[in-house]
Structures are given as C-alpha cells and as structure tokens.
From TrEMBL:
PANTHER family: SEVEN TM RECEPTOR, SEVEN TM RECEPTOR-RELATED. The keyword Transcription does not apply. This is Seven TM Receptor. Pfam families: 7TM_GPCR_Str. Keywords: Membrane, Transmembrane, Transmembrane helix. The lineage of its organism: Eukaryota, Metazoa, Ecdysozoa, Nematoda, Chromadorea. It comes from Caenorhabditis angaria. The chain crosses the membrane at residues 13-34, 46-68, 88-113, 134-155, 209-234, 255-280, 286-310.
Length: 383
C-alpha cells in the first residue's frame, strides 16, 4: 500500500502546481496582451497560445491526477481519482486527452523554435506563420496531440491478458480491482508456452509505445536543429538589428533554451525509460509515476522563466507596481538643499504610543536631511 501514499503525494503536488499555473500563466497572458510594447505580432500570439495550453494541461492534470506503475515487462497508466463520479469509460478518455495535451504542448514548443529560427535568418517562409496562418501551426500541435491520445487509447487499451498480468500488483499497491481502475495497460510480451520458448511481442502495445516515442523524437529533432542553427547564426545576424531588438532576440532565445532544458532534464527524458522498460523485461515493481510527477511543475516554471528572463515583463511589473502600489514621495527644496521622503502607512504617531508599540517601529516615517558644505544630518520623525 506504500504506492498509494506516493499517489497521494503526487495528487497534492498537482493541486498546488495548478494554483501556481493559474497565477503565472494568467500573468503572462495579461502582460503579453496589454503591457508589453515590443512583443508584437505573431510571437505575441504564440506566447499567449502556449500559456493557454499550459493552463489546459495543468487543469487536465488536476481533473484526472494520472499516475504510472511499472511492473516487470509492463506498466499501467491510470488514475484512481473518482472525477465527479464519471464512468470508467469517461475517465479513461480523460486520461487519453491529458496525454494528448502533453503532446500538444511539446509540439507547439517546437513551433516556437521554428518561428524564432526563421525570424532570425529573415527567411521568406516566415510568412506562413503570420496572421490567420498561425492557425495552421496550432493545428499542427493539435494534430500531434490527437495522434498521441489516439495511440494511447486504441493501442494501449486494456485486454484480458494485460488485466490478469497486473491484477495482483494493482490490488497490492493501490487496494483496487484492476477492472475498476480507468487507464491503459502496456504488456510487452505474450506469455511463454514454456521456459524454453521465445518471447513474442504484443504488437498492439508495441505500436502504442513506438508511436509515442516517434512523436517525441520528431518534436525534439525540430527543437535541437533550430536551437543549434539559432546559436550558430545569432552573433552574425544580430549585427543587422538595433541594440534594443538584438537584446530582445537574445532574451527570447535564452528563455526558449531554459524552457526546453528544464522540462527535458526533469520531465521529458525520464519518461522514455518508463515507456521503453517493458520491452527489456526488467524485474521491478515500483510507482514510476514519481518520475513524471514533475509534469505538474512544468507549466508554472515555463511561465516563470519567461517573465524572469525577458526584460519586457520585468519592466511591465515595475510600471504596474508604481501604478497600484504606494510609492515613496520625494520633496526637494533646492534653496535649502533639503529633501523629505514620506512613506505613507497607517497605524502611526499617537497610535504607536496608545497601543504601546515599539517606539522604533514607525510605519509612517519622514526622513529629513540637510546637506551643506559643513555638515550632514539625518533623523527619524514619527508621523
């Protein structure tokens, strides 16, 4: 039953990360839409679309709380979440949709790299990304998302043998009957007739895994090719741009590198052993969902990277803070060379004395100083 505790931890982490995703991705969408002046056109729309996909991915994770369990030559992709009392079939379809959204996210990430590369080299094919034609590339990502979900649903659908293979394991680890758990089961080989007989691959499950790996490889080949080309061409091409646009291009490139490096090292690459392990028929019995638990951390981290790396977002935050947060007021007197900094706050002056507050803890303070050729002095005066 120890694996059930790991599932509970993964569920709590997913809930927390959903809240973080709503905050960070909403900030990205809002700032990109209304407060970033130099992020315009196609890439502006791409950022908004990608943030929306991140929200959708996190929402689906919250809805179904998917998990993996690996056992010898098999693994189960499942959920024991009740999901508002939905039927077994509906919950299984939701798991397939979640995996499809995952594929949509990594596919649209590849589209971003393609666009940045073509923009950098000023390729005429950049016109295929502009205006309403951007919908083609949204369709590209959705196509691979649909393909991924379809592979999982049709080629990983549980059958009598896969259920019998994993029945005892799932009951021992999650206290649940395999037939009541929605999800998909991968068993790599047919049962042997005897100990000396060869292993025969279950082609339905092999098709499922090979299809998923192929989609993953296609997207990463695009990312790697475009990323390397951007690096090789950046310094030469950047000479043609103004200092402002050169700095912005470099920031976007760093953001894209961070956005692909973080999930690649902690999320995407680890999933490959989970998918491929059944075909090595390793002796194991472990909650491999722990490896992919960090899926839920990806959407908020992605948006946070963008806002920290690209100065447009930092500048937008500064402007908004000046507009909505109380700011120190500076009053200058040129004739006496005196200044006052007034920091407004409540609970000051007599309130401190009446409430027996710490006399040095002034919430409303006037800092005054005179500066002349003979002396300098500064002091605190309670309001």
């Amino acid at each position: 039953m120890a694996s059930l505790k790991f599932f509970e931890v993964a569920r709590e982490l997913g809930t927390i990360c959903f809240g973080a995703t709503v905050i960070f991705n909403s900030c990205v969408i809002y700032l990109t839409s209304f407060h970033t002046k130099r992020i315009v056109g196609t890439y502006k729309h791409m950022i908004i679309i990608f943030a929306f996909f991140g929200l959708l991915f996190s929402f689906m994770e919250l809805l179904v709380h998917p998990f993996f369990h690996s056992f010898n030559g098999s693994f189960a992709y499942f959920s024991i979440e009740k999901c508002f009392g939905a039927s077994w079939e509906i919950r299984s379809i939701l798991l397939a949709i979640y995996s499809g959204v995952y594929s949509t996210v990594i596919s649209f990430m590849a589209v971003q790299f393609m666009f940045r590369y073509l923009t950098l080299i000023n390729d005429p094919k950049i016109s295929y990304f502009q205006g309403w034609k951007l919908l083609y590339w949204v369709g590209y990502a959705l196509f691979f998302g649909t393909l991924w979900g379809s592979f999982a649903h049709y080629f990983g659908y549980p059958d009598e043998y896969s259920q019998s293979y994993l029945r005892e394991v799932m009951f021992d680890n999650y206290n649940a009957d395999i037939e009541d758990i929605p999800g998909y089961l991968i068993v790599a080989f047919h049962p042997r007739i005897n100990d000396n007989s060869p292993k025969f691959v279950r082609w339905m499950n092999f098709t499922c895994i090979s299809g998923l790996i192929t989609i993953l490889v296609i997207q990463y080949c695009i990312v790697i090719f475009c990323g390397v080309q951007i690096y090789l061409n950046m310094h030469e091409r950047m000479k043609q741009y103004s200092a402002t646009h050169r700095r912005l291009h470099e920031q976007f490139f760093r953001a894209l590198v961070y956005q692909i490096s973080a999930p690649s090292l902690t999320v995407h690459f680890p999933i490959v052993p989970v998918l491929c392990a059944p075909f090595f028929d390793l002796k194991m019995n472990l909650p491999s969902g722990l490896i992919v638990t960090s899926f839920s951390t990806y959407p908020p981290i992605d948006s946070l990277i963008l806002m920290l790396v690209v100065s447009e977002y930092r500048e937008a935050f500064r402007k908004l803070s000046k507009k909505y947060l109380p700011q120190p007021k500076v009053i200058m007197n040129n004739s006496e060379r005196m200044f006052q900094i007034i920091i407004p706050h409540k609970n000051v002056g007599e309130n401190h004395r009446e409430n027996n507050a710490d006399p040095t803890d002034f919430s409303d303070v006037v800092i005054s100083a005179t500066n002349n050729t003979r002396n300098e002095q500064s002091f605190f005066v309670p309001g």
